[in-house]
Amino acid sequence: MSTAAYDGDVLVVGGGIVGLATAYAVSRAAPGTSVVVLEKESGPARHQTGRNSGVIHSGIYYRPGSLKARFAVRGAAEMVKFCAEYGIAHAVTGKLIVATERDELPRLHALAQRGRENGIAVRELGPAQIQEYEPQVRGLAAIQVAATGIADYRAVARHLAETSGADLRYGADIVRIDRRPALGVAVRTAAGDIVRGKVLVNCAGLQCDQVARLAGDDPGMRIVPFRGEYFDLARPELVRGLVYPVPDPAFPFLGVHLTRGIEGSVHVGPNAVPALAREGYGWGTVRPRELAGTLAWPGTWRMARRHWRYGAGELRRSASRRAFTDAVRRLVPAVDPEDLVPAPAGVRAQAVLRDGTLVDDFLIREGPRTVHVLNAPSPAATASLPIGREVARRALAALASA
Q: DSSP state, 129?
């Protein structure tokens, strides 16, 4: 590896929305800095970015002061502006978070307070007011969050790719990383290509912990993949906008909800069940080596022991259309099992610590000549522009000190 052999100043591993936003931010913060994006798929946004419900999250759920709270609130406003400026389909729809049981009312009130602490305008509603917004929704109380919206994140990712100024290399599946602190980073792909750079940025999503280990860094966590199973609502007229349950604060999942997509259909879901592969979009996709790696991580078993009741409920809803329908009918009683049409699933790249803790904030760590994004599930699409700037800042600082 010689100084004359660099393919780029910054190598970004991962062509999802966070990796592309990072490349975009580097080129704007430091014009003339060369960036190479390495993506193993044949195009951008093929996994978490392209398989979510398309929601622009307001930031109401996240702990005040956390990266998720700060970046989601800022990112939601920026995403709306970005989509408007570049003609990308989006809408600011607002949403309802609905309490259907009395024991949810204190959590709903606490959520409203958290939203206000995060600078989000919220309106608390009673049963009659809920039906003014959503005639088919039933609940004891609700929060109306006006800042929530929807967007075509695949189109956002494509625009970031086209305007980033980066050298985009698709079909680049990384099998080895050689990092030499005095020289830089060399990456070998499955096709045998060698790509050299001064700094490596790891935005590999479902594979991010593996990429960190290839680079010689201990990430201190493992990705445990959770599949989110979706349905489309055969009678989309039952829902005008976005309707969510009150989430369980012990989990980073939001529960089964209904969201009107940018194309007009209504998505129902997701649940959260363990995936048997990192890209296990169905029960039939099993990769023994990946599954063995998940089961070998002590945090997986500690998490399972701590949360087995919650997990059992998710598995039941996965196995039973009737059970899934019952979860939906808590919010919209008119929904029947035949109203739910199977839709493509997604997989959440959830970081789990050795002690079984589900990481609930974005997690970014650094090593010599490396920056690793190790936990960036929802609301990462919403927050992608500020996340990209933060990662770019760290990458440029590493480049300056190299």
A: H
